[in-house]
Design goal:
Length: about 400
């Protein structure tokens, strides 16, 4: 591909880090993972971080922690409001814990949840709001907090596409009880596979430590909020199970890679923002296409191109032209998730007709962004679009 969706952010430092783990011969989660968690929490401005094997698993253990906490836990049948456009594993953990998903439409400009629709969609059963920061773009958390203030509604952020995004100078992913991140290959940093959850809440942190590792007590401190106190005899304690947990631990290699990538993260994000300036200069106020409007400071995961109503081109024609020009593209996340067949297996309600999510589903796509200068690729993109229109 002349212009691919994703490219590596590694250099020799990452390969050296992997070799060091291999040479030591202990591959399971260890001191490097712990060091990466501590470093990531510090970078995010959070008290705690828990690394897992993917951003999807990050969502899973975070939702599980909300269901197993001692005070005011989520319970089966509680309602969760979500945007209709996100990744599949934003929604799957909600179903797995018996929660009822309530889909609302997205804003046509920001592509995040339409906050007017959110406010109107809340019912007396609503207990959780999942705010998804789409394609690097943070939500308006000042408005969200004003909407849920004084209500028994928790906020969780799916920030898997938006590492490094800022709203009022604060990292996206840190506005709710917890926030999830992904470090998959195509994301802002790459640990091969990987994800994290950040939180300032000690009980949530300790719950996730146990849930990540089979639901046993071994990761917990002697005095803790989950089972009060561990047995003094490690033989009795190390294989005691207190939660219906998982094995979603990362490899030690992933922690080693994370440490390398974390050093690069500010520069990686800055490179993406430089590219975004050129992209917006080229495509803002385009007669046939519209682009995503930035809220706060986006970290620009990718660049959305949405065919306008009444345009002379179609999404199919645009996608074909891009592929022929060796520009990789794909739908905007899952499009309207309600239109995917899996929805039959998910207890849910839908607020309104979701016209914007439907338009995105049928008329939107996105192309990649990268940490290095892609001026030539973006100019090539503009030329391809211009040729299509004439």
């Amino acid at each position: 591909m002349v212009y691919p969706l994703a490219t590596t952010t590694w250099d020799e430092r990452e390969y050296t880090a992997i070799r060091e783990v291999v040479d030591e011969g202990m591959f399971t989660m260890g001191r490097r993972v712990r060091a990466f968690e501590e470093g990531f929490a510090q970078w995010a401005g959070s008290a705690y971080a828990v690394m897992v094997n993917s951003g999807s698993s990050a969502n899973l253990v975070a939702i599980a922690a909300l269901c197993f906490r001692k005070h005011n836990p989520l319970r089966a049948g509680d309602e969760v409001i979500v945007p209709a456009v996100s990744w599949a594993t934003t929604y799957s953990p909600l179903t797995q814990y018996g929660l009822v998903i309530r889909f609302v439409d997205i804003d046509p400009l920001t592509l995040n949840m339409d906050l007017n629709q959110l406010e109107a969609a809340i019912t007396d059963r609503t207990r959780l709001l999942v705010a998804v920061n789409l394609l690097g773009n943070p939500n308006d958390f000042a408005r969200i907090n004003s909407i849920i203030a004084g209500r028994n509604i928790e906020l969780f952020e799916d920030n898997c596409e938006s590492m490094g995004a800022l709203f009022h100078g604060k990292q996206a992913g840190t506005f709710g009880r917890m926030g999830s991140f992904s470090s998959f290959f195509s994301h802002h940093i790459s640990t091969m596979e990987g994800g994290l959850v950040v939180t300032d809440d000690l009980e949530s942190y300790q719950l996730m430590l146990s849930l990540r590792s089979h639901g046993w007590t071994r990761p917990l401190p002697k005095e803790n909020l989950i089972c009060d106190r561990l047995d003094d005899d490690p033989f009795n304690e190390e294989f005691r199970f207190i939660l219906p947990g998982y094995n979603v631990r990362p490899l030690e290699m992933c922690g080693a890679l994370g440490l390398c990538q974390l050093e690069k993260l500010p520069a990686l994000i800055e490179g993406r923002r430089r590219n975004a300036k050129l992209f917006t200069d080229l495509f803002d106020n385009h007669s046939q296409l519209r682009i995503q409007k930035e809220t706060g400071e986006s970290s620009w995961f990718g660049f959305a191109l949405i065919v306008r109503e009444g345009a002379s081109i179609t999404r199919k024609a645009l996608a074909n032209a891009l592929r022929e020009a060796e520009i990789e593209c794909r739908p905007i996340v899952t499009g309207n998730f309600v239109r995917n067949p899996v929805i039959e297996h998910m207890p849910h309600t839908v607020f309104g007709d979701l016209p914007v999510a439907n338009w995105i589903h049928d008329n939107g796509l996105f192309v990649g962004n990268h940490h290095y200068d892609i001026t030539a690729e973006l100019e090539h993109l503009k030329q391809v679009v211009d040729r299509l229109l004439h």
